[in-house]
Amino acid sequence: MSSKRRPSWTQSIDAWMHRREGKMTRELEREKLSPHLPQLPTRLKPDAVTHSVCGYCSTGCSLKIHLRDEQAIGLSPHHRYPVNQGMACPKGWESLTVLDAPDRGTTPLLRNQEGEMQAVSWDVATQTFVERFQSVIERHGIGSVAWLSTGQIATEEMAYIGALAKFGMGWLHGDGNTRQCMATAVAAYQQSFGFDAPPYTYADLESSDVILLIGSNLCIAHPILWQRIMQNPHHPRIIVIDPRNTETAQLATDHFAIRPKSDLEFFYGIAHILLQNGWIDRDTINASTTGFEAFASFLQPYTAELASAASGIPVSRLQWLAETIASGERVSFWWTMGVNQGHQSTRTAQAIINLALMTGNIGKPGTGANSITGQCNAMGSRLFSNTTSLLGGHDFLNASHRHRVAERLNIPVERIPTSKSLAYDQIMEGIRDGSIRGLWVIATNPAHSWIHQNDARKLLQQLDFLVVQDMYTSTETAQMADLFLPAAGWGEKQGTFINSERRIGLIRQVKSPPGEALSDFDICQRIATAYGCESLLEEWRDPESVFRILARLSEGQPCDFSAIENYEMIAANGGIQWPLRPDDMAEQGTINPQRRLFENGQYFHPNGRAKFLFEPAQAMPEAPSASFPLLLITGRGTSAQWHTQTRTEKSPILRKLYPAHPYLEMHPDDAARAGLHNGKWVWVESSRGRIEVVLRLSNTVSPGMVFIPMHYAVTNQLTFPAFDPHSRQPSYKACAVRIFPKEH
Ligand code: SF4
Fold first, then answer.
1. Is the whole-model pTM more than 0.90?
2. How many distinct helices (H) and strands (E) make up the chain?
3. 243, 251, 283: which is closest to 632 by C-alpha?
């Protein structure tokens, strides 16, 4: 199956990998076996090798870093790591190149009275940080400052930031860019399972006989996971549910091109057919769930005919899909942003979870309701950023949780806020109404990535004080900063990431940061000292000390990894999935490298059961109209691009692998009606902004629908600011636009 179904780009990447890996292997053999051959230049010879988890996506591939004099000189994929098994995508291969970009921040910068950024010392920078934020707080209260963090830095760093901000400086509000990608999965799992707990292990991709990929362009977004599916020996049905005929849809066995944002009706319709035919697992439902009878009654109006009318999929195809799910022995459901970024995204994710629960496809090999997360450490952020949940997946609103955390950290319980932070969109609204006046932005780029970008930029300009901490001075947000703090990047510091399957992996320092740039950890230690709260964080000496604190904080929680003793234990085991409790070690003796949750049918709600959750489907917030007749969806462009391209645009190789100019995919019939021509520049306009893009005629989109990749700086000038009410995740995937030739 594999060679027929594999996309050409994976074959070329394989060839590229083999060439590079082969070259490295030949170099090593040559050194070892042939001392009489002409010698390679010294700069190409490694004198040591170490391993580090990749710093882009949540797949969590391990890379072998070749060192000379303790500095990285090259890398190749790690063959024995249980995640990537010797594979890496173009971004991983180019991880080192982007560290040498000329726009790296090498010294702190402070905007002077003339409005120019001026180099200052770290002492001046941290003193300014403290004085300006304290001045804002004195004038407007402690609730007037906030931070926006990221899923791109080490768990230990984000935990330090969260502890410093909330327990040390007493701030109330902080959120992360994980709100933009994974908040929905968090809310859905918390409500359905009682804890934010993605249940799977990647081996499930290789053991399913039916695989549903929902709103997931896996080939592009998580290419190594697609390769894992290609290794599946069971010849699975690969069923893609996505409005767009993506690369993944083209390679799947079946594609359901549902109308954008008809997901809820579609999945309720499938559930209705399963129920009507008795294709459900009564034993699982009775033993491990609550709310099924109410769900069954709720489903009555969601007939196959209704689902068909909403989604555009014929009734016969819906029946085929339900029957395929029912007859599969091991059915797994995987979703990403197409689900998470919607106006009813939490209920959509739960409609998928409901299908897994009602058919008994969870807690067994090859099954699961499985959210694949986005950023390399989104999972670390979910547990330890101290933003929406208290460290270790605890709850700020729960007094016993606050006491437990205070006791384990040896800090006064009064230091722990008794309320939740504002969410990202609420922080932005706080800037609008003047209640938020100071903002600290760490390794994220809201001036590019936040929905309704023109509005977001105006809001950022309104702030009394904006601090940006980043690797690069050139990001759209860094350009707006009053104070810029230069940060070390991946490869220039150590710590841990947690990948999508809950695997804790190590990142290592293999290069020195440029100039005076410091790790986010070191920057925060300096801020703690300048703020006068360093004694509270005395035990948080270095990343590994913090890792041990976090392991202690996790004890007794579903994410308990208190049996992980140190970094070396993680390295020796090829990463370790949570949970890993002392009892697990005593029982198992060794660590099984592929572990899934809920094998015992027990969930994390107090009664041990999972919940069926559901809600009527609502119309999309901004549907096409006479003035704006086309529906714009956004998504990933290529596997060589990452988010706002802060890093990927720095690599000459990656730049060759994606189109330089923003482009729009449009159905040829729509283009013909509008008199538009392939390859020409066109205007795309929504009621919020107008951008120029290159037109690409393509059957990847249906008539009435257009697509623009999210990575280009202009894309979010168009998007409509709607939010899921449960997760507060922005709905990037649907807004109304019109297109016209550029000469108008
Ligand atoms: Fe693996 Fe993701 Fe890194 Fe690519 S970007 S090498 S898929 S972790």
1. yes
2. 28, 26
3. 243
